[in-house]
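Q: Could you write out the predicted structure for this multi-component system? I'm mainly interested in how the pieces pack against one another.
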Amino acid sequence: MLEKALVGSKKYWAWVFFLGALAASGFYYYLQQFNYGLGLTGLSRDVSWGLYIGQFTFLVGVAASAVMLVIPHYLHDYKKFSKIVILGEFLAIAAVIMCLTFIFVDMGQPMRIMNVMLHPTLNSVMFWDSMVLSGYLFLNLMIGWVTLSSDRKGVPPPQWIKPFIYLSIPWAVSIHTVTAFLFAGLPGRHFWLSAVMAARFLASAFAAGPALLIILALIVRKMTKFDPGKEQIQTLAQIVAYAMFANVFLLGLEFFTAFYSNIPGHMESFKYLYAGLHGHHELVPLMWVSSIFAAVSLIMLLIPKIRRNEVTLSFACIMLFISLWIDKGFGLVIGGFVPNMMNQIRPYWPTRQELIIALGVWAIGFLVLTFLYKIAITVREESAGVEIEH
Amino acid sequence: MSMDRRQFLKIAGISSLLGLGATAASATHNIWVKGINPPEVEPNPVALKAEHWAMVVDMSKFKTEADFQKTFSACHTIHNVPDVGNIKEEVKWIWKEKYEHAFPDQENPYMEEKLKEMPFIVLCNHCENPACVRVCPTKATFKRKQDGIVMMDMHRCIGCRFCMAGCPYGARSFNFRDPRPFIKSENKEYPTRTRGVVEKCTFCTERLAVGKLPACVEAAPKGGLIFGDLADKNSEVRKIVETRYTIRRKPELGTGPSVYYLMGGNEHA
């Protein structure tokens, strides 16, 4: 089926080359970082994780969100999703590839990364995270490929794949839970030391991932002959609305605990992010954009008239995605490091090179996504009108 | 016994291989035949040993800026700690912080200005339950069983910096770039580091092994830094901790820091 990614219109190739150029510029700066060290980034002794780990965290969520299509389709027998469940699984593959690449570019000694497997350390959450992520990548590659091949041949998928599909459900939950545990188990980092961290991660993931999927589905409909379906998009929109509500609620819980308890360590990061602390306001505008976008997109999603209109729905989804990207892909990581362990403020801002490297990783992910979607959609276009019982 | 050419070559080949093997084995006899097990290596008879190395810091003994600088530079020179020259990429093993920063959340608005501004020496706490060791994905940082020192394997560290997020004391530094150009005079007796790895104080394991006290303890004003075995009832550190008022940094986190700060200073055991 791979050959299907090699035939396309001029537009398709223009897009592929555009992404390729972005990936190449990211790679160019990565070589600089590889030779010079992470000093090329805005990271410091006090803010030792930044944009890369933030993107990693956010994208684990996007990867996990494929489960929002798999559960209705395979557990609740929601047949309408059989057309688009592959879009979710392929998005998960692209997202996990981005996650692993972000981890790689964040390493101080990337050539030693296999030490994680050579010296397995069961007490380290990072060891488990690398295990569950690679497992999830493998599961989705296998499930996506087997089901799509069957579709192409016009036969139902083989029975043996079912257990793997069911396994992928708790596995998706595990990747984001374990990623939350990277943060939520550290003594002294009050901002992260929260029992609802994993729940919040899952809620924001199940909002941001399907929101991205809605945008992608609308693009697919516009650019190709394959229509993911109006009803399917509406069901996704409802999922996004519920998940976003849960996410905002959980964030509210964090605020309550921090500010009602009035414990300085618990309040300071929130103050730094949303109001500024000791004269430092670096992230305040960004966090307010995130908050306003979250509120507006949630309200838009809750009003049926706005949600059912695909134009307004796409706006809501874009705002929601940006909001959660800022919140989880940036604020969450930086907030944990500011103030530092000595209660001093050392601000962080990514450098130009760091931003281009991050953009390059996103480009690689979208390149993978483009190829995978091209394959899936070509198969769908060819079997158009043929309904296959899954 | 008759033998054709093929058989002869086979046997000759095998025996020469065996012969070569035998020579190789005898040349490295000690390694391959006997093997070296750490317990069989004679320990240095003068090495300093303890069950639980700990330090008591008595700030009252540090009177001048020179007292501090002498202490810090003793450590940083011996261990080839680079002076990168900016806060962002700073590498440090031992340094000073104001009271309000060394012990955050302990200050109060009416506190004596002198104490609030008073410098405290900080370094790795060699915790009993080190968070850095718990989170490290490769065991590059580990707790030495025999004496509780938290150590670093610079050759195994992948530079993920999880330990820096985990340490509640900010004791760890990362080599954001090649540190070697920033070492003023290299001590050839101690390794330099490469870029991309994390480093920190090791309580001078290399000095303890040859019977010397940590470099900072030796360089500090007399009685400023007291080093000893907390598990030994008769040690000076144990006596101070038992009889005097000492505090530790962030004890509420359960990490069990092994560095104690003697409050009220002056004469002690």
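A: Regarding packing and overall arrangement: The domain at 2-382 of chain A is CATH 1.20.1630.10 (Formate dehydrogenase/DMSO reductase fold).
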